[in-house]
Specification:
about 350 residues; alpha+beta; three-stranded mixed beta sheet; three-stranded antiparallel beta sheet; elongated; Stage II sporulation protein D; Spore_II_D_firmicutes; SpoIID/LytB_N
Amino acid sequence: MVKRFFLLGILIIFLVYVAPLGFQFYQNNQAAEETIHTVKNVEITQEPQASDGQNAENTAQEESSGGEKSAQSTMLTVSVGGTVREMELEDYVAGAVAAEMPASFPEEALRAQAVAARTYAVYKQSLGTDDTHPDAVVCDDYTHCAAFVDLDSGAEALWGKNAEEWSEKVRKAAEDTAGKIVTYDGKAIAAVFHAASAEHTEAAVSVWGSDIPYLSSVESTGDDACPKYDASVTLGAEEFRQIMLGKYPDINLTGLPKTWFTEIQSSEAGGVTSCKIGGKALKGTEVRELFELNSTHFTISTTDTSITFHTEGYGHGVGMSQYGAKRMAEDGKSYEEILLHYYTGTEISDID
């Protein structure tokens, strides 16, 4: 009987004191795993936007042709979701960094991104508005200007449980570099950027045909950490033929696929600048757009029934590589060193 009461007492002590601690430990572990899972999702799904749309080519044309310059201001008009808003330049910079680069990146990489975003905004401001958004200097469409998120209203949707921490981190990157821009010959540059290059960035002249001295090809390391660095696109021969004929009705795609691709020319950095497909001369950028390739750094392999494009890198490849900036920051480089590496012959200056 005594033994039975003794065992019952131990059971009661376990249920009252030990079991709740074990349950709390389990809950804490679950919360930690959930937080880590959230962080991983952000890093994977929030890919650097790479400012990879038509704006880049337009920027190159604007830069090479010059244009009327207007006075710079600390206020900026931004088209957000089609609605024109006026905001402080530094608020725009923080929102652009949040949308363009994962907040998990090192602080110096985020600072470099902040200066690039500010520089591009000041550059666009100096040119005035354009036909796409005549009432705003920049817009939040990354295929035209740069992605943007309002941190006051959009941080939680972007980062979930990390919203407060990462909003503070991104705002600090903007604050730490406030008023700093990249200049060439005393003027704000077209500070274009991309997610990842293939060991070397591309010169602007190789991609857009405009020779811009500060957008030359430089070495870049760490880019292969980008989740989309290596990719392949495979099409059946008939599917490929129909796409090409739909775009170029006079193209000659008779015979086997291996005979369709000739005169492939590459840049110094390795990106395809031009090629002939079925006798039709195409730019590498045209091939990339037509088949939605991650970059112009591609190779082509064929079978009798299929065509495969294998790409390295992600984005147009010109200017600052975001994953390259990440690696440089991890190696102890400052944001100034990162920017001066990718934008050759430039200086870090204060806004006038």
